[in-house]
Amino acid sequence: MKKAVIFVSLLLVFTACTTERGELWAEVNNHALYEYDAEEMMLAKQLSPENEAHVTQFVDDWIAMQLVNDETAELYPDTYRANSTKADVTLYQLNLFELENDYIRTHLDSTVTTDEIMDYYRKNRDNYLNQSFIVKALYIKIPDSIDAVKQIEKAFLLKNDKDRAEISKYANLYATNFYFEEEKWIFFEDLVRDVPITDGTKERMIIKKDHGIFTDNGNVYFLNILDYRIKNTTAPLEVEKETIRKIILKRRSNELRKQMNQTIIDEIKSKHIINRHH
Hints:
Number of helices: 10
Strand content: 15-25%
Oligomer: single chain
Distance between the termini: 50 Å
CATH topology of the domain at 128-234: Chitinase A, domain 3
Order of helices and strands: HEEHHHHEHHEEHHEEH
């Protein structure tokens, strides 16, 4: 009778343990995979416990992992211990990284002043240089409904002084947008802001000092590149302000990360019982 009581007691303990951790999904040697543990691991791997295919694949993978680990431990115990140590170190580093991130969120000064942004911008101005094309060019935009389109097509090539006079006349009469300053430079992107032209065509036209006619939405655009230069320009501070703010915060974060390692360990020690015997 005593043996029966012991057996029943053990059975009740086992059943309670199983219930607390959910249904038993798989066993390999002395390793057991329970429902609740499996679901947590699946979610960590971005798998759905509601998806039968995901569950099947996860259990297959778990079984394979236990088999490989046990086989390695039996055949190559030194290698198994070394790999286990490496895994522990990796786990430590991942967990420490999370604690560092939490420390940074709590201690990082996220206020970046305008003076700090300006100072960074001045000291690193070369990082914000852009290369832009400046051109001397003729640009005229007219409605495609006017009768003078053909005459302008001939004159906008500017082969002689008569063409220049014709262009000026037609521009004054019909143009909805017009630019022609043979001795002044203008940023090419400012000139063609409204022109339906691809990036590839833009660069080809500039380098070849070419001309072109473009149409869209009832308009005709005439463009003739007479000369070009490449000019270094600095991106405006307003454009770069948010990027600079993020850079400054990233630097502060990195400095905190360098300093905080021992601080975090010391704070954790105060929360735990440590018995060191060597």
